[in-house]
Fold each of these.
Amino acid sequence: MERNRWYKDMVFYQIWPRSFKDGNGDGMGDLWGVLEKLDYIKSLGCDGIWFSPIYPSPGADCGYDISDYMDIAPEFGGMEAFRKVLDGVHERGMKLIMDLVVNHTSDEHDWFQKSRRRIEPYTDYYIWRPAKPNGKLPNNWDSNFEGKAWTWDEERGEYYLHLFAVKQPDLNMDNPLVREEVKKILRFWLDMGVDGFREDVITYISKAEGLPDDHLFPIYKGMLKYNHGPHIHEYLAEFKRDVFDHYDCFTLAEAPLVWPKRALKYIDEEKGQLDMMIQFQCQCADCMFTDYMPMKFSLRRMKKAFSDWQIKLQGRAWNMLYLENHDHPRIISRYGSEKFREESGKALAVSLLFQQGTPFIYQGQEIGMLNWQPEDPEMYEDVQTRYTYAHSNLNKSPEVRLKKMWRSSRDSARTPVQWDSSENAGFTTGTPWFYVNPNYTEINVAAQEADPNSLLNFYRKAIKLRKALSSVRHGNYKLYYPLSSTHYVFSRETTEEKLLVICSFSDKTTALKVPAGFDISKAELILANYDNVSDKLQPYESRVYLWKK
Ligand code: NOJ
């Protein structure tokens, strides 16, 4: 079917449902709460919603451990609430995408329960191996979350592979029956009217033949043997041919360790099997490979990553743009400045929203929520955070270890959305399932609604502009001053118009540097985060200039 690729004109909002809004007073965010807030999301200029998993799940990884793919968890309101949300989204001219998590299931999924008992046809739905003769594990792979990637199952008398938590066994995608199950899941939601999928760690689904040891990759041993594995493109092409090609939908693939050249094998508009990719390079400006090794933020690294993706995908594929999601701490705390919260939040918004691609905004990003800083590590909920805390930096003091977690934990960005300054930040009338960041009395939606200069209203303005300007959608991207560690300056240009984006990432006043060929006295300043502009840039000052040709 000829595709009009409507996702290119959209801005998405990511909902991590447990912490978005509680509609029934039980302390847990739910779809009733989402229903109340659809107009708010629309008011931001967002026309799509990505839901992190809302299926039944024991919750070992906050929903990324699914026990039933064709239902909605009762704590989120079940199918009844979901259908209302889906209708509400479509009535507003918006789209909705679901999270497809099929690298693994929950160990409580019926398939796993039958597989461990060797009940057909489920015996080979998962990746089972006997112990090696010397009693060793089947290979040397690490799980991404909890120690080794193999756990012994007494009932089956074999090890099963889990690249994430012990309660998240990996599916055996080499089994054609498993691939048929995936297609059934996809058709089930697409037939209901869902508009696409974000595909969780989809590049992990094909493991190297024989599951060999990995002697090269320093962390997460095994990564080079299961990421971008031997049959990955074949399986994704099969899903596309048998399912996606028959629906007006789009796919967004999460892909750890990917760079533009590799990404094009997946998302090239002519030959790819998917539409967009969540890559981690732009998320690594303050870490090596992952967030679990926090380093000083490097603007140069961020600019290089963004620019690489902008330039190398131009005309061939479409970028997915993001700064925050449920797997990373808050971006102002990471790349900006808590001291200059508003200003740096706006600079970050400008840096992202004027690039080519489809932006995804994570709940609370639009009001500049900051990292949560618990005083006791026991307060962490996330399986990965708890494991990392218990096993790393053991020679450091408890204070240092805790501070490292503040900077790196996924829970730093999983606290309830701060709606207003009433008790529990207006998130729930009950007892919240998780801690509310105590700064909610100051940082909340209601306060920012009332302030025309707030970060929230700045997001609205910037989104409106990006939608009105063809150069943001089509324009060529060019980076200036690549070696500057304080300024991010880029242009977007079409035959009709030219944009210059200038963002300071310094907490000091700095010189305004304008690249040759841009006469700002002849341009319109269409967006700025300070009222008074001069020939100097104030801390985190950001401007967007427009020339019509
Ligand atoms: C990536 C998801 O974004 C993350 O939240 C989850 O824990 C892992 N995949 C495992 O599903």
Note: The two ends are 37 Å apart (CA to CA).
Amino acid sequence: MSEATADIGVIGLGTMGANLALNIAEKGFTVAVYNRTTAKAHALKADNPDLAGNIVPAETLEDFVASLKPPRRVLFMVPAGPLVDEEMEKVGPLLSGGDVMIDAGNADFHDTVRRSKAVEGTGLHFVGMGVSGGELGARHGPSIMVGGAKETYGSLKPILEKIAAQYQGAPCVAWLGPDGAGHFVKTIHNGIEYADMQMIAEIYGIMRDGLAMQPDAMAGIFRDWNTRGLASYLIEITAVNLAEKDPDTGKPMVEVITDEAGQKGTGRWAVIEAQKLGIGATTIEAAVAARGLSARREERLQAAKTFADVKTPASGFQAGDAAMAELESALEAAKIIAYAQGYATMASASDEYHWNLPLGTIAEIWRAGCIIRSHFLDDIAKAYDGGARVVNLLQSPHFVERVAAGQAALRQVVARAVLAGIPVPALSAALAYFDDYRRARGTTNLTQAQRDLFGAHTFHRLDKDGVFHHHWPAV
Ligand code: NDP
């Protein structure tokens, strides 16, 4: 049997697990590692001689558990879904009171709530932890969103604060609330990521199809934008993506990659949860739908032939600095609206599930390490400074002026794109949401009238209190 020397153990040494284990070892903690294919555990130690003293590979789960110091901390980094339950069922019986199981994969938060309940009364603790930043983040500092009992977080905090990304000296990790809170926030993070990426892709589409720009020129623009309000990891990598050449053909890499986006489901979950909560996360919806449609490439190629004769007016976009400035302002305004939708979804979930999510802290721990990292998140954090109650970011004084200033550009860009037949589903969803949100008199008075006519669903009146039903003429 192994000696109990490890501070924490990682099960699942794929892309994320292996890198997280190395990150933990590098920060001076001893990490036990176990993998279904056990050779990977030994390879992790052998391939990293500088960290080998802090890595304890195990051949069996029994050895793995025996190598952990109590209270034992076991972190699962395996594909989300039933596999997590299977792994917990194998490891749970080997643990004892006070030990902690941590699911660090991209779990559906409903599963996390269920798993948290399942360990109640067993003496074991369960933590659902969202980790963002991909492979590099896991290795050098991810953003970590923790859900579970606050006391349990206390026992993990010293390790998590060391391995997390740092933003100006502050670790990008926090306890966000009980059971599913961490995984829910990770889901919304991914939803916002989808929207942000889709809107950038739509701006690229305008540059390519509306302005006939070459990828090199676009890369220069994105590099420039990365020095101001839009500065972010996603804008930075977009410039890199656009500047890269294919070694085989010498063509820009983006021109040899098929236009079919993949997705693993977290964006879809974000949309589903927003819908259940009655929040219009329309930019995220547009992004998820656009990825879905993009994946139907054969069908689109056929449709392109079917509608080849449908002509759209020539693009109203004109090259030049003014056009670039307009695109930049439009993207910035749309981005604020997309993040406002994500935050509105979290605020609503916080009320619904009594999580008391610290929305400002969430912005703080997203400032570094994760895919949507940016200084813009610092502005969001400031909107919540001192626990300020923010009804919607679009009404926060920090953003009112910026959206008011950028909306005209967004309107111009969306209008020109629509006329030219260039699809901008997320940008136009952002604009429509903004216009609907700021409209004092909407149109669902008609919807209510229809519902009352066909289903006696009743309605409220502007001029009288109470609930009313009208005897509409027979149709
Ligand atoms: P990988 O596919 O790289 O690794 C999966 C790991 O799970 C491997 O160690 C694999 O073992 C193990 N595994 C797979 N199937 C089984 C099984 N049936 N029984 C036991 N072990 C199994 O996944 P990632 O590291 O990319 O992802 C892990 C989790 O992290 C997922 O929930 C993912 O959504 C999440 N995540 C991923 C990110 C990313 O950028 N990749 C970012 C943030 C979160 P073996 O080596 O034997 O195949």
Note: DSSP finds 20 helices and ten strands in the chain.
Amino acid sequence: MNFNIVTVSGDGIGPDIIAEAKNILNVIGKKYNHTFHFTEKPAGGIAIDTCGCPLPEDTIEACKKADSVLLGAVGGPKWDHLGGNDRPEKALLGLRGSLELFANLRPAVLHKQLKEACPLKPEIIGDSLDILIVRELTGGIYFGKRGRTEGGAYDTMAYSEKEIERVLRVGYGAAMKRRKKVTVVDKANILETSRLWREVANRVAKDFPEVETSFLYVDNCSMQLIRDPRQFDVIVTENMFGDILSDEASMLTGSIGMLASASLGETKRGMYEPIHGSAPDIAGKDVANPIATVLSAAMMLRYSFDLEEEARAVENAVTKTLDDGYRTADIWSEGMKKVGTKEMGRLIAERI
Ligand code: NAD
């Protein structure tokens, strides 16, 4: 099959890590007989420098036409003096909005080889950890009516049934490709929007009889993530709760250089990116960990292209590389073999 991918390498370590993810996709293409066509487009700081704005129209149009988008990271000290709409980070919100991406998928995966990086006790974490948080991205309190009153202020949390249903369907769809458990997280003892989330979830659940559904209040969920994280498979939740819980869950995995993410909408086209930033302190030094980006590319294979076997091949190659003792500086520990960005990419490719 043929796939058109727009790469938005962005700033800092962006170009270093995207180069490795592209190599890996090409190796997958060769092995499984697919062709990936890549087109690079500017966004972020580099777009400010070359086109005068963080998200050129041409980049948006190219992303809209693509089968999927792979993004590195944007931002850096060079553009820190800029304010509000002129900042490189504006490109991310702009792309998510233009592509109508309403579901953010953030896996929190702790590889057993990196268990020591997890701040929890070994008996709690067991052998490994694999949770997927699906966060609603375009509704809720971050987008509701807000304002000031005399001596006060207010924010509004609002959701339509349609907004809730479409993100729940993404969550259930993902659960079908995993361990078939969905936990819907809300505050239904207090919030009316949460009660609506439960109603819609009970309805959607009927279309996925193989999936086990449970409900949890957000305060309890934040506690359970620390007490017994292995009870979770897929967590689906609204925007603000998801923002907070996904950061909490990512801490369980130790390294920021390992965590992938996907933003999905109504169509198969998604935007895939590591959760870390542009790490300007290590840009261009061949030390950045490319694994988060490589695993984001694996998510693209799974969720946008329905290439499950190919996605697993990438994930297994990452696991094997870690098993064989190779580490970039950020996840290195005594007795392990320290490698750079390019070498890590080559070792993973070799194992595919
Ligand atoms: P950061 O994630 O870039 O870096 C935090 C720390 O983690 C740094 O010490 C960095 O060296 C390290 N790190 C990050 N990714 C790594 C990797 N792949 N391998 C090894 N080490 C890695 O966060 P920050 O320093 O707060 O932000 C730097 C810039 O990135 C800022 O301009 C910020 O606005 C931007 N940012 C962009 C995104 C994005 O594009 N999605 C996300 C967060 C921050």
Note: The chain has two domains: 1-101+265-352, 119-253.
